[in-house]
Amino acid sequence: MQVEVIRDPKPSKIDHLFVVIAEVEDGRSEMPLPPSLEAVIRKALTGSAFSGRIDESITILSEEPKKLTLLGAGKEKELTIRGARAAAFSIGKIARRSRDRRIAVVFPYSLPDLGEAETTRLMTDLLSHADYKYDQYVTADKKEKRLPIDCAYIAPAALDSRASRKAQTEARAISGGVRTVRDLGNGPGNLVTPTWIATKAREVAEESGIKCTVFGRKEIERLKMGGLLAVNRGSAEEPKFIVLEYAPKKARRHVALVGKGITFDSGGISIKPAEKMEEMKFDMCGAAAVIGTLQAAAQLELPVRITGVIPSTDNLPSGSAYKPGDIITMMSGKTVEIVNTDAEGRMILGDALHYASELKPDHLIDFATLTGACVVALGNECSGLFSNDDELAQKLITAGERVGERLWRLPAWDEYKESIRSEWADMKNSGGRWGGAITAALFLKEFVNCPSWAHIDIAGTAYTDHDTGRDGKGATGVGVRATIEFLQSLS
Ligand code: BES
Ligand code: MN
Ligand code: ZN
């Protein structure tokens, strides 16, 4: 929904007012409420037995506004971004269900470690996604009528109109980037091909004044990107290698972002089981995160030079597909013995990381739905982080904490390298099951020539297979918010 940050709401213009209220131990605390709504909110609070417990909600019919819903946020001292995201998501759902056209939201708290402006920015961004649904392919008669909802986020009194406007502008840039990621991620594999990703990247680039270069098969061959070409051999689609460049004049730092763009991962000759294979359309969410982040960064006019690098193909079996036992020479010149064609992400990323390293960025960060092992280790609540630079790792973790995209660091110690040792080539493309997320990171490291590199494994966070109460089913848009926060901390 479209969210506007406003300071002085007119109750008559609101169909449905949502107030998020936390639980307090010793009676109701006097949280600051917007003057024009204070009376009606206080009346609702005293008139109901509402306590603010998490998951609690009461809807009251009144005059102006016509409906008022109180939503519990749990203990005030234990407010989390996770809880705030759940509240935003519930608001979207309730508003959709009750066919509201104009809603307003009051969230009279600041989130932990965030000030009022940052809380407002994050809530506005989260609310814009609260009623998100990818329903482009649900045909007319089955599709429920989804009328647009206008949402007013009531700014805290401490925020002046300039600060409110800024929070709104920033939230729109970020939620726009997140939307790009979700739409690309949710798009089916027959639509979202490498060519489609390239077209989308070009579109975003044109809108945002970014430079976009797309290499097709010829150029990829000329660059000797053996990893990308090997994975593409089973495919009927042309591989693409996409480079996005955002280079503002005032930039002092250069950050390269690399994203895995496998538009469908069947596993190839080492084919995956049929169950849930359809989820492998999400295997390009790293690529999407790079495009969405560049889109948001350019719109925010961040004073950082950013280069996005995306290798893209699908991974399918065929008579010409690469196969176990093959030895592939990568762009860097290193050779890889293929033992599992399903370890394809690292093959295309090896070339992309080598390419990006040659640009000599200050920081190099890659995003990839790389391993099931990472999901086994960490589940769906955080992404796996690997880095050769403690300071970069810490900055990314902190940035993620501030926007609700958790990262957990795993080791990339050389001790684990033994598992990808090969008799026939410089390395094998898979180290087997044990420590699979780590050995994948170590494989990538072989192609990195940058003292400040981070690899973010988003296999568990890029999409969900069910409605979580914080996100609907499908692509989550992970990567954009944390990376933007990190880039802002650099400038
Ligand atoms: N795209 C998958 C990883 C994945 C798994 C993403 C589950 C999202 C959810 C990746 O290409 C893959 O197949 N990895 C293999 C590596 C193995 C063959 C070494 C895996 O994790 O099983
Ligand atoms: Mn795979
Ligand atoms: Zn994959």
Topology:
Layout: E1 2-6, E2 16-23, H1 35-47, E3 57-61, E4 67-75, H2 81-97, E5 102-106, H3 116-128, E6 150-154, H4 161-186, H5 194-208, E7 211-215, H6 217-222, H7 226-232, E8 240-246, E9 254-259, E10 261-265, H8 285-299, E11 305-315, E12 327-329, E13 335-337, H9 345-357, E14 363-368, H10 372-378, E15 383-387, H11 390-403, E16 407-409, E17 427-428, H12 436-445, E18 453-457, E19 463-464, E20 474-475, H13 480-490
Parallel strand pairs: 1-6, 2-4, 2-5, 5-6, 9-11, 9-14, 10-11, 13-17, 14-18, 15-16
Antiparallel strand pairs: 3-4, 7-8, 8-11, 12-13, 15-18, 19-20
The structure holds ligand BES, manganese (II) ion and zinc ion (ZN).
Could you walk me through the main structural features you see in this protein, from its secondary elements to its overall organization?
The strands form 4 sheets. Strands 7, 8, 9, 10, 11, 14, 15, 16 and 18 form a 9-stranded mixed sheet that branches. A 6-stranded mixed sheet has the order 1-6-5-2-4-3, with helices on both faces. A 3-stranded mixed sheet has the order 12-13-17. The longest helix has 26 residues. The protein folds into 2 domains: 156 residues, Leucine Aminopeptidase, subunit E, domain 1, CATH 3.40.220.10; 316 residues, Zn peptidases (Aminopeptidase, 3-Layer(aba) Sandwich), CATH 3.40.630. Helix 5 runs parallel beside helix 8, helix 9 packs parallel to helix 12 and helix 11 crosses helix 13. Helices cover 34% and strands 21% of the residues. The protein is elongated. By secondary structure, it is of the alpha/beta class. The chain is built from 13 helices and 20 strands. The structure holds ligand BES, manganese (II) ion (MN) and zinc ion. The site of manganese (II) ion has 4 residues, from loops.
